[in-house]
Design brief:
Layout (H helix, E strand, L loop, with lengths): L1 H11 L8 H13 L3 H14 L9 H12 L4 H14 L5 H12 L7 H5 L1 E2 L5 E2 L11 H10 L6 H18 L16 H14 L1 H17 L3 H13 L5 H4 L3 H6 L6 H16 L3 H16 L6 H21 L9 H9 L6 H15 L8 H15 L6 H13 L8 H10 L8 H16 L14 H7 L5 H22 L3 H18 L3 H5 L1 H11 L5 H17 L5 H21 L7 H15 L4 H9 L21 H11 L5 H14 L3 H7 L1 H11 L5 H18 L2 H4 L2 H14 L5 H22 L3 H15 L5 H18 L7 H10 L1 H4 L2 H9 L4 H17 L1 H9 L5 H16 L4 H18 L5 H14 L5 H15 L4 H17 L3 H11 L12 H11 L15 H13 L3 H7 L1 H12 L4 H18 L5 H15 L8 H12 L7 H14 L5 H18 L4 H17 L3 H21 L4 H8 L3
Protein name: Proteasome-associated protein ECM29
GO molecular function: molecular adaptor activity
InterPro entries: ARM-like, ARM-type_fold, ARM_ECM29, Ecm29_N, HEAT_ECM29
Length: about 1200
């Protein structure tokens, strides 16, 4: 902990210790000596924290010496700390610290990549400094001498890292970009490096000599590509000057001929050849004969050595050609013939090497064989080039060789080669092969004028072009170029094969770049441009990439006086292709759209020349092109207010290739997106809003995709300074969210959600925005047929209520009604369809409607409405109640009615204190009308709301409601409506004083519990209706007998009305109720009430027989069975007489019940009416015997059973009567 605190303290006050090296040394020593790993970790962290304190120290040289000492330690943590100090305290171009860094790292066991410590790598593959800054490396001379002056012995690993680092220092010191990958010589950079080495040698030969010795030392210790490559470029640059250093090591170099690494063999061969060229003639002749012998020896079996020997022979030939003009040819006809024979070798490596050597010889001199053999050689090379079974690498070498042998001389064979390639445009799709053929054709056209004829070690391409002397051979070049272009342009138009298109594109581009100075090429620039415009429509990305670059090259190579003409032609051609592209599907993957937008942009800018700049930027690839090659007109800055809005939209195009291209233009023109958008926000916003409903779906979707990022950059400016545009954007977004194109709909919905969040946040303080926004959301969004629009609108309203409830009070009533009216739009379309489909089936319809109602109560609007209750006060209620009344009575859909009644329930529950009786009365009127609605689900929903009202309403209101509900029950025989009445009464048991209303509701509930389902409906009958009345009875009655006794008068009154009803079912239900009451009360039913009930039944028995009339008899029987023994005798006689009359009815079923009732009465009352009974029985038996109908036999049998039962129960207790009828019976 102490070490950690010290480190933190020093990092806060670095100046206090920046000159104190003793403290630093003590910490390093502690790190070395400390045995505890935890404490060592703390010391290491503290040292890292302290590092910054010594950044400005004047004792950096002493610190470097100290670090040199600690670098030698084996402790890994110490090495980590020294690495950090060396990389942080000392500049990247300090040679000594870099050397120590390499040494320290290569000897440690850590996994840290040394290259990441020394430098970074950019997208192109070039080395850059830390944090992508400019690369800094020590000067090459300084680094070499620092390495040499170090007295330590390097191990092979360190020496190899040093060699690579030295090569980077050499490249950078020569003024060239440093690549991450190994730079093989000769290359484009080789001439500049050779010149730099010569310059350094002239100033201080010791530096180069030391460098060469170091590389020779490494090759001897650990042969590898890097030191061999470094040595090669030095020997190539200074062969004579350095010959004394490497002559003695020729054997070492020659030993590498048999290396297992192909590149090692090739480099050693080249190095060996250049080294031999510096020897005296005698020694040279000796070695060269050995080389030629190894090549021409037919019995050779060392292919590895032969491979290196071929490159040695080639490099000797090349060196002597450029440096010894007067010496005879090294490779004569016999030797060359042997090289040609190697093309048939079984080893692909030898065949490839032979191609390289033949090409190297052919590019400098006419090939030394007879004319007829030259044709054979070309034929052989072409067969290698087009042999698909041959390795691609070898085919490339064969192709390059055909072009190189045309460089050394001008002959008719060049045309033959071009013609052979033109016939093979469809042969392959390998882009590497096509690139090689393009190079070969360029060589064949230019011949000796080709850049391939230069000295690769001393001349760059630019230097060669300045140095070249144009002679009469230019005419032949023109003819060949004319022949090639005529044929290739014809193939572009006539051949549709993708391989052919790619070949034509690549070959023509190569010839355009290499041969544009030829008159024949310059005269065909317009045709070439036309061809490349056509190639822009290809699906192949590579073809389009080359075509776009070629268009720029055409303009660049055109004469100044014709540039305007070629520009107009390009705009016209692109526009024509755009017209075609609009009528058919863009097969290019969207590139036509890119150029369409670019043409439109430059036309609007009235700067057609910019099309080339935009094409260049649209195809700009950071990984392939350095930024310095791009040159944007400074006047373009003046057009930025017009360009920026469109480019901002273009880079969000849904087509990936357009998006990539436009983003490339944007990233080049705009250094800081946030600052640029902030500067041109109004112009961008106007463009986006203007194009949001553009006829082109791509434009619409690009706007929708651009808006979210734009909103992130602009903040509240779209509200404070562009409020009108924001409102317009909302209006148009709602339209686009219902777009015919699916992708556009989704993008618009996503954008609307983003804009919604920003608007809600702004509305908390911006009432103007709130007032402008609400009508759009309510009128255009909430009731829209598109579900996504409704969902966004609903969510926005919900957020507005939560965040801006107080500001919304004035509009809250309208807002709530709007939400309720939108309930049917939120319903699932499937449920609506099912409801229509099964509308004829009541039971199924009820199930579906119940599901619809449940969904209406749980929709997102319900959540919003629940949140709105927090902000409802008396003023809002005053505006809301009339609107709710209108919703309840208007002939609208089920979801709206259910949602409205559900909201009223919530309102009453949470805001009952603000609801007076006046408001409740207003609400009850439409609700009472609703409980007789045709739809069962609506009735139930209204009834539930009425039940909620009864829990808080005044006594007078509830009593009026009960009377109304009684009327509804008595006036409607539809049991589902009656069930609704039951649901409406459920709230009474939950009010504060339910006993106040028992006298009013007990008769109805008691009566309703005795409902009996008609027999015709039993199949589909349910117990739900009976259940609700049973539930009500159980909720309100805890002692049935006591409650009935207490409220018997009101029950009698209600049943008396019911039994007088014109409805038979009502009469029967009343009879069942009377009988049940008598059964429950039993002997507790006093005589007065019994007689009143009997009178009521007598009234009901009057008249003809009807279905259910038998229940009156059963009730009458129950009244007498429950009576006391002291009941009035005269009343009993009257009852018996009444039943006697009913036994005479024609309806057999009714008569049997009457007979049963009569028997029960006579038995219970012990009245002697046997004589009358006997006469009745005999009369009925006689009449039934006369009826011989087979169908009535079964019924007659039951009738007789009833008669005999009656005779038994009516048998008198009077002795005289027993004597009178004893024998008869």
């Amino acid at each position: 902990m102490t070490y950690t605190l010290i480190g933190l303290l020093i990092s806060k006050v670095p100046t206090a210790v920046k000159e104190d090296l003793e403290l630093l040394t003590s910490f390093f020593d502690a790190l070395i000596k400390e045995p505890s790993s935890d404490l060592k970790g703390s010391i290491r962290s503290s040292l890292i924290s302290m590092c910054n304190a010594y950044k400005e120290s004047s004792k950096l040289s002493s610190i470097l010496k100290m670090l040199e000492h600690y670098c030698k330690m084996s402790d890994n943590l110490v090495k980590q700390v020294t690495t950090h100090y060396l990389s942080y305290l000392f500049p990247a171009d300090d040679a000594r610290s870099r050397l120590l860094l390499i040494q320290s790292h290569t000897s440690s066991v850590g996994e840290t990549n040394l290259k990441k410590i020394l430098y970074n790598v950019d997208e192109v593959g070039n080395l850059v400094g830390k944090n992508d800054s400019t690369l800094l490396l020590p000067r090459f001379p300084d680094m070499v001498m620092t390495v040499v002056e170090n007295s330590n012995q390097y191990d092979s690993s360190a020496l190899l890292e040093i060699a690579e680092y030295l090569s980077h220092c050499l490249t950078l010191s020569a003024g060239l970009p440093v690549t991450y990958n190994t730079l093989y010589h000769p290359s484009k950079q080789t001439p500049d490096i050779c010149k730099y080495l010569s310059k350094v040698y002239q100033s201080d030969a010791n530096i180069i000599e030391s460098y060469v010795k170091l590389m020779l030392q490494l090759i001897q210790i650990k042969p590898s590509i890097i030191p061999l490559n470094n040595l090669l470029v030095c020997i190539a640059a200074l062969p004579i000057e350095l010959k004394d250093l490497f002559i003695k090591d020729l054997n070492t170099i020659q030993k590498l001929f048999v290396s297992s690494n192909e590149d090692m063999r090739k480099l050693s061969g080249i190095l060996y050849g250049i080294s031999l060229s510096a020897l005296d003639e005698t020694t040279f002749d000796k070695h060269i004969k050995a080389l030629i012998s190894s090549v021409t020896d037919k019995n050779r079996n060392k292919s590895l050595e032969l491979y290196a020997s071929l490159y040695a022979l080639s490099s000797i030939h090349e060196y002597r050609f450029f440096n010894s003009k007067n010496v005879p040819l090294l490779i004569e006809q016999d030797t060359f013939s042997s090289l040609v024979l190697l093309l048939d070798d079984t080893s692909p490596l030898i065949v490839g090497a032979a191609c390289d050597v033949i090409g190297a010889i052919g590019r400098l001199n006419p090939i030394p064989i007879e004319e007829r053999n030259k044709a054979f050689l070309i034929k052989k090379l072409l067969s290698i080039s087009f042999n698909n079974s041959t390795l691609s690498k070898i085919r490339n070498k064969g192709i390059k060789c055909t072009g190189l042998i045309c460089v050394g001389e001008t002959s008719s064979r060049s045309k033959d080669i071009i013609e052979a390639y033109l016939e093979k445009t469809k042969h392959t799709k390998d882009i590497e092969i096509h690139l090689s053929i393009g190079d070969s054709i360029s060589c064949a056209i230019l011949g000796p004028l080709s850049k391939m004829s230069r000295n690769f070690w001393t001349l760059t391409e630019e230097e060669y072009k300045k140095k070249i002397v144009v002679d009469i051979s230019i005419d032949e070049c023109d003819k060949l170029a004319d022949y090639f272009l005529n044929n290739i342009l014809e193939k572009v138009n006539s051949e549709d094969h993708p391989n052919s298109k790619q070949a034509c594109c690549v070959w023509m581009y190569n010839v355009l770049n290499e041969c544009h100075t030829l008159t024949s090429v310059n005269q065909k620039l317009a045709r070439i441009q036309t061809a490349y415009v056509a190639l822009l429509t290809e699906k192949n990305n590579y073809i389009r990439d080359i075509a776009s670059k070629a268009l720029i090259q055409v303009y660049e190579y055109e004469a100044e006086e014709r540039k305007e003409q070629i520009l107009k032609l390009l705009i016209k051609q692109l526009s024509e292709y755009m017209a075609v592209g609009n009528s058919v599907k863009d097969s290019s993957g969207g590139i036509l759209s890119t150029y369409k937008e670019l043409c439109s942009l430059v036309t609007d800018l009235n700067r057609p020349k910019l099309i080339y700049k935009f094409i260049q930027l649209a195809n700009y690839n950071k990984k392939k092109e350095p930024q310095s090659k791009l040159d944007i007109d400074e006047q373009l800055n003046e057009q930025l207010p017009f360009i920026i809005p469109r480019l901002y939209r273009y880079q969000h195009d849904p087509t990936p290739i357009v998006q990539t291209s436009m983003s490339a233009i944007w990233s080049y023109l705009v250094l800081d997106t946030r600052l640029t958008v902030d500067k041109y926000y109004k112009e961008i916003y106007v463009d986006l809003v203007k194009n949001i409903t553009c006829p082109d779906w791509r434009v619409r979707i690009s706007v929708c995709q651009a808006l979210p990022s734009f909103l992130q950059y602009t903040g509240d400016k779209i509200f404070t300074k562009c409020l009108d545009l924001t409102i317009e954007a909302w209006t148009q977004l709602i339209r686009v969210m219902d777009d015919i194109h699916e992708g556009t709909r989704k993008a618009a919905t996503s954008t609307a959600k983003t804009l919604s969040k920003l608007c809600v946040n702004e509305c908390t303080t911006n009432t103007q925005l709130l007032q402008l926004l609400l009508p759009i959301i309510l009128d255009k969004g909430l009731y829209h047929t598109e579900s996504s629009i409704r969902a966004v609108s609903m969510d926005m309203i919900s957020q507005l209520i939560v965040n801006c409830g107080e500001q919304l009070k004035g509009d809250l009533a309208k807002l709530i009604i709007a939400l309720l009216r939108g309930a049917d739009k939120m319903e699932s379309p499937d449920l609506g369809a099912l409801s229509v489909m099964f509308g004829a089936n009541p039971n199924t319809q009820e199930i579906i409607d119940s599901r619809r109602a449940a969904e209406a109560r749980t929709l997102s609007s319900s959540d919003v409405l629940s949140k709105s209750l927090l902000y409802i006060d008396e003023s809002v209620i005053h505006d809301l109640i009339p609107l709710l009344q209108d919703l309840l009575t208007t002939n609208i859909g089920l979801p709206i009615k259910v949602a409205t009644s559900h909201f009223i329930s919530l309102l009453i529950t949470q805001k009952h204190q603000q609801l007076n009786s006046k408001f409740l009365d207003k609400i009850l009127k439409p609700l009472m009308k609703g409980i007789t609605d045709r739809n069962t689900t609506i009735r139930k929903s209204y009834a539930s709301t009425i039940a909620v009202i009864t829990t808080i309403a005044k006594e007078s209101t509830v009593n009026k409601l009960i009377l109304s509900l009684k009327d509804v029950y008595m006036e409607n025989e539809d049991e589902s409506i009656r069930q609704t009445v039951g649901y409406s009464l459920k709230g009474i048991s939950q009010c504060e004083k339910p006993d106040l209303y028992l006298g009013s509701i007990i008769p109805l509930i008691f009566f309703a519990t005795h409902y009996k389902q008609p027999e015709s409906d039993e199949v589909v009958a349910t117990d739900k209706s009976h259940d609700i009345w049973k539930e009500l009875w159980e909720d309100n009655v805890h002692n049935t007998e006591g409650v009935l006794s207490r409220h018997l008068d009101s029950v009698y009154e209600f049943l008396g009305i019911a039994i007088k009803s014109s409805s038979w079912a009502m009469k029967a239900q009343a009879a069942r109720s009377i009988g049940d009451a008598a059964n429950i009360l039993g002997r507790h039913l006093n005589e007065e009430h019994r007689n009143r009930f009997i009178e009521t039944i007598k009234t009901g028995l009057a008249g003809r027989t009807w279905s259910g009339k038998e229940f009156l008899l059963e009730a009458l029987l129950q009244l007498n069975l429950s009576s006391s023994d002291s009941a009035e005798t005269c009343k009993n006689e009257e009852i018996v007489e009444l039943v006697f009359n009913e036994c005479k009815k024609e309806n057999i079923n009714y008569r049997m019940i009457a007979l049963k009732t009569l028997g029960e009465l006579l038995e219970k009352l012990k009245i002697d009416r046997f004589t009358q009974t006997y006469q009745l029985v005999m009369h009925i038996i006689q009449k039934s015997s006369e009826d011989s109908d087979v169908d009535n036999q079964s019924q007659n049998l039951k009738l007789k059973e009833s008669l005999f039962s009656l005779v038994g129960k009516a048998w008198p207790y009077t002795l005289a009567t027993q004597v009178e009828f004893g024998e008869t019976v």
